[in-house]
Sequence to fold (359 residues):
Amino acid sequence: MVTPRAAGFSMPAEWAPHAGCWMIWPERPDNWRLGAKPAQAAFAAVAAAIARTEPVTMLVSAVQFANARAHLPEAVRVVEMSTNDAWARDVGPSFLRGPHGALGGVEWPFNAWGGLQGGLYFPWDKDDQVAGKILELERARRFRAPYVLEGGAIHVDGEGTALAVEQCVLNANRNPHASRADMEQMLMDYLGVERVIWLACGVPEDETDGHVDNLACFVRPGIVLLSWCENPADAHYEVSRAAEARLLAARDARGRKLKVARIPMPTPLFMRDDEAAGIDPTPTGMRRAAGGRLAASYVNFYIANGAIIAPSFDVPTDETARAVLESLFSDREVIMLPGREILLGGGDIHCITQQQPAL
Ligand code: KQY
Fold:
């Protein structure tokens, strides 16, 4: 099997120009409260904001097609596709750029963040097919990876470096028989990078087992933004310090030492009684309980053409987060949209979007 790297493909950084963005319409009532109505409004707001700067495609089930069409701006293309849930970052392809302007993409085998050992739902067969279907629609070259991974488990700087979290990528609930060396080789071969910088753990309570896209991201080559906690009583205090220490000790693929910018973690957020009560429990779906800590992070934003689309949570840290993002992305408008309804489903704006690079 030829790998993307051998074929001359690599994943561009998220800040490189996009041809568009892919999203999936939320619908399953065992993850999204009140029949997914509040989540649909939140996803529609994200789609509308991104559609101001780049084309957006919303994938929608046959049942929800008319409803989604009615709630989305005309500019958003609505396409019918079967899925198990709504996480385009994780089930969509990680798009690649190849020789002579070729478009490619990685299909990561998907097992709902842990399969039958701690995964979030069963079945996940439709989600597993989404990346391949998107690549078919785009006539892009398909590369099926050998090991389970999700798009939210990696970030790249577009210059040969990837970021990943051991707790997630090396978790036995994804690939019980793969070694660290196997996974590192796969990341290099399928993302077209030369170096992987490993962080130990993700944001506590993150049900993905610690996706990097909720913890840290490149904002440009050589600079990583990290979700930071100042409260020693909070589990994220140690996590953020350990991550910073690894980042400061690392060199990227170009031999640069990294700079770390800190963004505060949001004021702690918990699932309310009324929110938990609005979720329809099923034996094979998510378990959500009132009082559970939500794995909130301002790092979970999308870099659109000309704009940053970031979550806000209606808490005091929102304004500091906005100031940090504005200082790091002075060339883009920072748009903060309510992120709580998406967070209740276990992720945020980065997790529900997938950029397709311009060629
Ligand atoms: O972090 C992400 N990329 C996705 C979060 C998925 C949560 C599933 N409930």
